[in-house]
Amino acid sequence: MRIYDLIMKKRDGYALTAEEINFLVTGYLRSDVSDAQMAAWLMAVYFNGMTLEETVELTLCMVHSGQVLDLSSIPGTKVDKHSTGGVGDKTTLILMPLLAAAGIPVVKMSGRSLGYTGGTLDKLESIPGFSTNLSPAEMIEQVKRIGIAIAGQTDSLVPADKKIYALRDLTATVECIPLIAASVMSKKIAAGADAIVLDVKSGSGAFMQTGTAAGELARTMVQIGEQAGKRTVAVITDMDQPLGCAIGNAIEVREAIETLNGGGPRDLVELVTVLGGISLVLGGKAERREQGEEMVRQLLTNGAAAAKFRELVRDQGGDESVVADPSRLAIAPAARTVNSVSSGYVTRLDALTIARAETALGAGRGAATATPDLSVGIYLLEKIGDAITSGEPLAKIHALDESSAQIAARLVSDAYVIGTAHTDHRPLVSEVIGTPDPE
Ligand code: URA
Known about the structure:
Strand order of the largest sheet: 1-4-5-13
Structural class: alpha/beta
Bound molecules: uracil
Order of helices and strands: HHHHEHEHHEHHEHEEHHHHHEEHEEEHEE
Radius of gyration: 22 Å
């Protein structure tokens, strides 16, 4: 078998066999296949796509390029959740303790975002003392003890994805549905859960800008999961406007704690309820989605989800008093308020522009090595569909210096469009793909 022939085959629009894909991936990891050859093959995939069989094969080759977590010593159905990433998305911080409170074992490996926003690990590290540095063995031991662990992904998991993703990033081949699907699902499968719930975002602040693209990605990932023997359900959710009101790191943790304590913004509560209802069915704790959703509402209001989060924070070395009193989190003072210059309704609140404002404040990561500022952020007082009067505040900017506050304030102001016609609140969930109970 020659690499040259495999590149030519894909360039000419043919599907590769399982053996050929394996040859390519293992050869690339061993550096028998050069960066130039892999880049040429990736670009051919970008233009010609891959069949589902090829995509599943690529995923499985990547899974077996490294360690696959064996969670069989933990009793019960392990459910994992993945979001394709969005602005203000702090769902993991609420959903995973809630599932653990319901008796679903949670072994969650999260990432640090390299884009505009901080990742789940950055957010958790805004809790004083919280450590996200746990080995897989330590995670398993902790889950046996308290039912939940959240830590960074170990380097031994899916090394092929790490190497291929870095090359895609350099060669404009990230935005390709089968490659994204294989990349995401290889990490989820290697992380060892029995069932996977995917939150695929669609809109200006998401990887997938349209519902059609998000649907295609979601269907591909669900099919990969099912073929790998994992029950997989995907939900397509809106990311044209940010999720919730808090955007940043510590400020998002505060909103997550408010939600765990039975409050929180409407859209965030809705998303946790939908994802939670599905997860509880997949984890065998509810028969149907509505029953699962009712359980979610109870766990958020009876203190059980918050108590589990407190246990998680304590076990991972964090200051658990923030759960009762989130004002203990270090959040920069509000340096500026962005006021509306007209009266009417919020008709648009562009997620991408808000993400740029977040970056201007220093809350995200410009490069892999940049350290995000955990205390800065934005608080959105009005969302799409809300009525507003000229001169009233739309948002607050929490910044550490005047120049970044000024840039962020201008961007936040640009993100809002105020119209005169009444606009409905946006539907958050547009589609559920896969069982249980797709609508
Ligand atoms: N996130 C991933 O993990 N992989 C991709 O390819 C894109 C987004």
